[in-house]
Amino acid sequence: MPLVRIDFSEGKAPEYGEQIGRVVYRAMLDVLGVPKGDLFQIITEHSKTGLQFDRDYLGVHRTDDCIFLQITLNNGRSVELKQRFYKAVADGLHQELNLRREDVFINLVEVEKENWSFGNGEAQYVSPAR
């Protein structure tokens, strides 16, 4: 159950965030093996001063078009799988939106399954409390 946060600077077309979300979701299905229908995204547009970042950290030059993806998901995926996911997202956003790969910042936050409640005050991924 990934929870995806998509953040970008204002000034884009109204459907821009949804387009990013579709690319990320497709990569989650194809690469991470997320079940179909497991779609939970928070899409936020910020003022130009609302996103602060180093333009050249680790030798990667970022522009005002830099987007931030923070994905909370169950732990246990291999480093190789994560690397394939990063590439699939960056390549997909480049192909679909002409977004520079350098402007795609991704952070995965891994959690244990008991850290999810999908509603009803229950932890659906764990056995019921006794």
Helix content: 25-40%
Query: Could you tell me how far the N terminus lies from the C terminus, measured between alpha carbons in angstroms?
Result: 24 Å
What's the CATH H-level superfamily name? Macrophage Migration Inhibitory Factor
Strands, total number: 4
- Would you tell me the structural class of the helices and strands? alpha/beta
Radius of gyration, rounded? Answer: 16 Å
Task: Tell me what the structure shows.
- The protein is an alpha/beta fold and 130 residues long.
- It has a single domain, classed as Macrophage Migration Inhibitory Factor, CATH 3.30.429.10.
- 28% of the residues lie in helices and 22% in strands.
- The protein has helices at 16-32, 79-97, and strands at 3-9, 41-46, 67-74, 104-111.
- Strands 2-1-3-4 form a four-stranded mixed beta sheet, covered by helices on one side.
- The longest helix is centred in the C-terminal third of the chain and has 19 residues, at 79-97.
- The chain is globular and about 50 Å long.
- The mean pLDDT is 94.
Short note summarizing the structure:
This protein is an alpha/beta fold and 130 residues long. 28% of the residues lie in helices and 22% in strands.
Highlighted features:
alpha/beta, Macrophage Migration Inhibitory Factor, four-stranded mixed β-sheet, 130 residues
